Each structure stands twice: as C-alpha cells, then as structure tokens.
Amino acid sequence: MPYALRARRAVRETVSGLPREFWWLWTSTLVNRLGAFVATFMALYLTLDRGYSATYAGLVAALHGLGGVVSSLGGGVMTDRLGRRPTLLIAQSSTAASVALLGFVRDPVAIAGVAFLVGMASNASRPAVQAMMADIVRPEDRIRAFSLNYWAINLGFAVSSMAAGFIAEVSYRAGFLIEAGMTMLCAVLVFLRLPESKPTATVAEAAAPRDDSVSLRTVLRDGPFMSVVGLSFLVALIFQQGAVGLPVAMGEAGFTPAEYGMAIAVNGVLIVVLQIPVTRFIQHRDPRRLLVVSSVLAGYGFALTAFAGSFGVIALTVCVWTLAEIVNAPTQTSLVVRLSPVHGRGRYQGMYTMSWSVAALVAPLLSGFVIDRFGAEWLWGLCALVGTVAGVGYAVLMRRVSEEGEKKETDKDQDQEETRTADGVLGVADGVSGESRSSGTL
Fold it and tell me: pLDDT tens for residues 283-293?
C-alpha cells in the first residue's frame, strides 16, 4: 500500500501545475496518434492489397517523407505569421481530407501524389504544437510538459498499431477513413478549446524595422541553434535504425517478422511505462549531461546489436536505446525552445522538425547501402561512432551556450543598473521618479 501511495503521489506531482490549455493540446495529440493508420500499414496496403512492388512502396514512403521535409519549414513560417491555432486548424483539416482521399485513389501516380500531400499536411502541425506548448507552459515545467506529450504520442501509437492490424483485416479503406475522422476531431478540439497563444509584440517591437524580424535567414545564421539542428540530425539517424536497419539485420540473421514485432514493441511499452518516472528524475538535472549521455547511450545501444545472437539479447539492446530516447526527446526539445526567440518559435521549431524529417529520408538509404556493401556489423559500429560524435558535440555546444547565457545575464544586469541610474538622475531633474516612468511605459 505505501508503494501504491508513493506511485500515486509521483503521478500527481508529474501532471499537476500545468495549464488547462496544455491538457487540451495533449488530448489533441493523443486523439491524433490513436487514429494513426497510414504510417503503420501504408507499405502493406500498397503491396498486399493493391499488388504493387516493394520498390513502388518504398518510393511512396520516400515521397511521404519528402512532404514532411517541405512542410516542416512551411509550417514553421505559418506558425509565426498566421498563429499557432490557425496553423493547427489548416494542417489537421488538410490531413483529414488528404488521408480520406488516399483511401479512394487507385492510379499509382495519384497515390504517390496524395501520399506526398499527406506527408506535407501531417507534418505542418508539429512546429505549431511545439511552439504553442512553449507559449503556454512555464520554462521550469517545459521538460515535464514535452515528456508528457511524448508519452501521449507513444501511447496513442501503441494502441493504434494494435487496432490497425484488426482494421486492416476487414478493410484498409476503413482505416484511412477512421484516421481522417480522428484527425478532424483533433481540429474540432483545437477550434473549440484552444485559444491562440502567439505572444503579442510589445510597442517597441512593433515599431522596430521590418528587417529586424525573425526570418528563415535569421534561423540559418543562428550558429548555436543550427548546431543543435545538426546534432539532432545525427541522433535521429541513430534512432531511425529501430525501424530501418534493425528489421533488415534481424531478417538476414534468421529472425522472423513476428520476433521483430515483439522486439520493437518493447520500445513502445518501455516509453509508456518509464516516461513519467524518468521525467521526474531528469527534470531538474543538467541538460548538458543528459544530452551527452543519451546520445552516447543511443549509439552504443544499437552497437550492441552486433553481438546479439538471440531474441533476448536483441530485446535488451532495445531497452538500452529506448532509455536514451526517453531522456533525449524532451531534453532536446526543451533546448530548442531555450534557444528560440519568442516571436520566432514557429520557424525555429520548423527547422528542428526538419532535421528529423531529413533523417527519415537519409536513414533508409544509408543503412541499406552499409548493410549491402559491408554488412550489418558495420552499421552498428557506425551508430556507435555517430553517437560518440553527437555526445562530444553536445558537450562543446552546451558549454558555449552556458557561457553565452552567463554573459547575457551579466550584460542584462549591467544594463538594468545603468537604466536605474539614468532614471534616477532624470527623475530628480524632471520631478518624476524612475518607478513611475517604468509604470507609465508598461
């Protein structure tokens, strides 16, 4: 009983203190992932139900991913210009319409084109979700909020994957229509329950020249942030191997598809079970250490697959890199928010999202080439190397970010002291105190 009470208290402390808007956004995420169907069974639909080749199915998957790359930046720009709420409504409504259409088209060129549109529409909402979450959640609660959102994504995906298997046995078209309906329900939730969270510009910012606004060029010139994007791409390449390199390597080693399914299910189950307790453990710890450790752990977790001669050992390696995933995802997302200017969060989140979309395109090509030319052992060794490089990169980057942050805080304190001194002098001359001038400005 004491253990049950402690567990209940831990859960209550993890979910308490977050604003109501966050929970509506969280619910929208959960509903969206509960209805996921296309991403899970698209290849089976094309090869088994429609009778197309595996090469064509791979092309359609690549076009779906390419759509995500394009919309990552487009969705980020929309998030900043139109607002978070309008972007979510447009993206989710477009996703619902395109997914429903995908269930009815039959021509191979039309299927490929609509799959590209689905990839664009579905990924356009991600920068808006992350920017809105950063807007409505206090800085000290963001790692916890991003962890809970990641937990909802994986819980919904785990449930939808199992349900999609039964739905596919009845009708693939029903699966497309169910996903379209669930996505439209998300749009309804956003419309009814989520207010716009885009920060309003101050008088000084509104009067600033247009050239000072945040643009994609501004993002590209932000060295520390683009370093995070590059390191994120490396980490994403590693995690993508769970869906790309691992099934191919297991197949060549004589394992059955069912054994791969059970192995990858370990990933989803662990995230659902451990995300909340691990979040409590990491939320007040040094993000530099968390990013370094999680990057190295991911790389060497996959590297251990080279020594896995049984299903039990493979499941153990999945546990290792899943723990790295649980730690890395919310910590890295929180770092992106930290480095993003308030009025440019959409573009910054879009660029960050694009790093994962590009990794999803590159990983299949990279893993296939390495396995065919050199063997799976070289792929797992490459994962260890990439994880080490990413870990070292995060160590250097976070030291630089911390030093710049301390310098900015020092300069800010000096500016505030100079302002108070100037206000005091002017206040004596004008008969107006510095405090009342500040109040008047506000």
Answer: 778 888 999 99
